[in-house]
């Protein structure tokens, strides 16, 4: 029995998408090439800088930073986890993955914070952006690799583009939530004292919303890490590349090693970012 839709032909959605991507690729080729050059150079510079000193020096610096930001336990755990990754001979791949996540998170947060603030202040914008965020979070992650390749080609910049699109929605949602859950009494008090909208936003709403915003950034980092294996399919390298190589060569031991390394890196970043938004007296 025929599976064709009766009376009318197939709606040419795929043709429209192909034509749209072709037009965007041609129209913005100069912009995407410039972005690719800037981000590619930045990623390469950070990877080189982190790879130049002996690994123990970089581990000591990261452990000290984690101790300062999140407390003694997280600092010691960071040192132990990174030393274990060095022992597994995955240090170079870890540095590449960390750099990719760092850049992708920075770009995602730079886009998400203004949009989240606007959504927190405007009911109309919030109503418009929420369906878009639902669409972005429901779309399978693999689909984001499709537009990345014609825009930026194979490599880390394409992986970064797909990672930014996939990981950005939680930061927008939780920024909106953080601003909107500020007690109305405090907002009214700032109005009564004659604060303008900038003072009200940056001295009342944003400081009180910081824990919720940091929770959104934390989720963005976790989603960015969850993309590293998928992004390895288009040349991202790093720990995701190790997993992808193990799958292709049927090497389950190497694949689990790289997978555990991703988990360790995720735990370190999760614990540090969770503590940043908390008062100092609650840190351990």
Automatic annotation (TrEMBL):
ABC transmembrane type-1 domain location: 94-273
Keywords: Cell membrane, Membrane, Transmembrane, Transmembrane helix, Transport
Pfam families, alphabetized: BPD_transp_1
PROSITE patterns membership: ABC_TM1 (PS50928)
Tree of life domain: Bacteria
TM helices/strands, residue ranges: 56-86, 98-121, 141-166, 208-235
Annotated family: Belongs to the binding-protein-dependent transport system permease family.
Name of this protein: Glycine betaine/proline transport system permease protein
Species this chain originates from: Ectothiorhodospira marina
């Amino acid at each position: 029995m025929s599976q064709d839709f009766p009376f009318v032909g197939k709606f040419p959605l795929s043709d429209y998408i192909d034509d749209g991507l072709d037009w965007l690729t041609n129209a913005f080729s100069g912009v995407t090439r410039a972005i690719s050059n800037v981000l590619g150079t930045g990623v390469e510079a950070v990877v080189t800088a982190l790879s130049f000193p002996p690994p123990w020096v970089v581990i000591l610096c990261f452990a000290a930073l984690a101790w300062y930001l999140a407390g003694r336990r997280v600092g010691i755990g960071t040192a132990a986890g990174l030393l274990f990754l060095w022992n597994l001979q995955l240090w170079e791949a870890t540095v590449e993955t960390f750099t990719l996540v760092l850049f992708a998170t920075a770009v995602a947060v730079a886009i998400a914070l203004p949009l989240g603030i606007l959504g927190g202040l405007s009911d109309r914008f919030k109503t418009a952006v929420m369906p878009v965020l639902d669409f972005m979070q429901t779309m399978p992650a693999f689909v984001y690799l499709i537009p990345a390749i014609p825009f930026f080609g194979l490599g880390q910049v394409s992986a970064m583009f797909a990672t930014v699109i996939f990981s950005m929605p939680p930061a927008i949602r939780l920024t909106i939530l953080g601003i909107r859950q500020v007690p109305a009494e405090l907002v009214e008090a700032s109005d009564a004292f004659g604060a303008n909208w900038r003072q009200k936003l940056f001295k009342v709403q944003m400081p009180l919303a910081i824990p919720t915003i940091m929770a959104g950034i934390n989720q963005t980092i976790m989603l960015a890490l969850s993309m590293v294996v998928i992004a390895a399919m288009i040349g991202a390298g790093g720990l995701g590349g190790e997993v992808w190589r193990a799958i292709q060569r049927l090497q389950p031991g190497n694949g689990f090693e790289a997978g555990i390394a991703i988990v360790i890196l995720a735990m370190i970043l999760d614990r540090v970012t969770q503590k940043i938004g908390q008062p100092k007296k609650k840190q351990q």
